[in-house]
C-alpha cells in the first residue's frame, strides 16, 4: 500500500510528490461523461483530481442517502484511479462552490435553533450521521488502502465565516473516528485574518490558500503563516481561480489566457496547485447557488462553465492549450497527450406536440396541504423548485390594496387565473391594488431561485423559502391557505388534454427523432422563465434576461430515435418550433 505524507514537501512512498490538481465536480455532469473530463485532465499532465462532496446532493431528505447513478461517488473516484489520477476529496459539510445553500441540506433549516457550521451539538449530530454513511464509501478508497485518495478537507473557507476551533476539531475527530488515515487540510483566503480564523495547525492539519491572482504575494503570506507556527510544510493553493461564476442579467466573466498561464507558472514553480475549476459543468435541476450582496440575493445561472480550461461539455479551450504550452516549458519531464474533443450538433424543426396550463393539472403533480397560515418550503418538506399558495377572499370594495410580506424568492400572483402581479426581492413588500369580484381565488406561485452559498446569510431568515409572512389585504393578513408543492418527478403523469389558457404558467411538450447523437444546446430564447427536461432529466433553469438563454444537453441524455422535451414556463411564453445549437447562445454578448 502507498503512503502519502505532509513533510517539507508532499511525499508519496517516501518520494517528493509535486501536486498538480484540477477540480472536476462529479455532481455537475452525468456519469457517462466523467471519463472524458478526467482523461483531459490527465492528458494535460496533471496527476490529481479534486472534488467537493455536496451533502444535499446525497441526503436530500434526512436519513435517506443516495450514492447511485449520477451520484455514484465511488465510481467517480475509481474511474479517476483507472485513468492514472490521484484524488483530493473535500467532504466538508459546507462546500460553497456556487451550489445551493453551499451544499447544506435545506432540511437543516427546520430547526430554527440550530447553529449551522458551529460546535452546536445538534448540528454536529446531523453531520456525524451523514459522515457515517459517506465515509463507508471514502475510507476504503484512501491511498493507504490501495485507493487514490491523498487528502481530505476538514472545512471550507471557514476563516471567512467563523472561528470556532472546537467545531473544526470536532470535524477532524469525526473523520478520524470514521476511518480517515490520510492527511487533512483546511483551505481559506490566503491572508492573515482568514488563515488565523480557519486553521487547525496545532492539530496537525495543513493550511492551504485560495486565490487566483497576485500569486507571489499570497504564497508569501502562506510561507509567513507557516513560519509563525514553526511549520515547514508545503505551500498549496487549493483553489487557483482560473475563471469565475456568473449571475442572471450580468455579462459572462472571462479571464485572459496568458495572464492565467503566467500566474499558474508561479504557483507551479513555488509550490503546489489545484485549478478551480478545471471543468465547471452545469447546475442541473434546482442546485444553482446564490450570491449575497447587501439586502439582495443574486442567484447564479445554470451554466457553470466558469471560463475553465475545459468548457461545459468537457472540451479543451484556449486556456487549456496555453496551460499545456506553459507546463511543457516549465516542467520539462511532464507527460502530456492530446486532449479529446467531443463534437456537437444542431437540431432543427422540433415541433410542439402538446401544451397545458399549470392550474389545470396542479392536483396531479403536487403534494397538497392546508393550513391557517402559509407554510415555508422547509415546513412542507419541499426544499427546491416551486410552491403554489391558494386562498379565497371576498370583496369589500371594488379595488383593494395588497402586499406580499417577506416572500422568497420570486412571486407571481394570479387573480381568478389571471396574472396580476410579479415581483422579485427588490419589489416584494410594495403595495399593489387588485380589482375584486364577489368571490376571488388568489394563487401565488413562489419560486425558490437558490439559497446563498457563501457568507453571513447562511444564518439569515432569507434562506427560508416560500410565501413568508403571507399576503396582506388592506391592513390584515389573509388566512386559510392550500399549498401545492409541485413535484416535477410526476411530469410523465401530465394530462395535456386538460386545456390551455394563454399567458399562464404552462407545460409544453415537444418530440424529435435523432439518427445520430452528440452534445447540443437547447435554445430557449423564445421562452420567458422556467425549467426544461430532456427525456425526463431536469436540465436546469433558463431566464430571458440572460446572459445565456440556452441549456447544455449531454449526448448521454439523448436517444437514437424518439426524444422528448418538456418545458415548464411561468411567463406564458413559448415557441411552436424549438431548435438546438452547437454552442451556447449569449444574448448579452450578441447585443454588443
From TrEMBL:
InterPro entries: B-gal_1-like, BetaGal1-like_ABD1, BetaGal_gal-bd, Galactose-bd-like_sf, GH, Gly_Hdrlase_35_cat, Glyco_hydro_35_CS, Glycoside_Hdrlase_35. Coiled coil: none annotated. GO terms for molecular function: beta-galactosidase activity. Residues 374-486 form the Beta-galactosidase 1-like first all-beta domain. The active site is at 157 (proton donor), 239 (nucleophile). Residues 505-563 form the Beta-galactosidase galactose-binding domain. GO terms for biological process: carbohydrate metabolic process. Residues 10-329 form the Glycoside hydrolase 35 catalytic domain. Keywords: Glycosidase, Hydrolase. It holds the Pfam family Glyco_hydro_35. It comes from the Bacteria. Gene3D superfamilies: Galactose-binding domain-like, Glycosidases. Belongs to the glycosyl hydrolase 35 family. This is Beta-galactosidase. It comes from Macrococcoides goetzii.
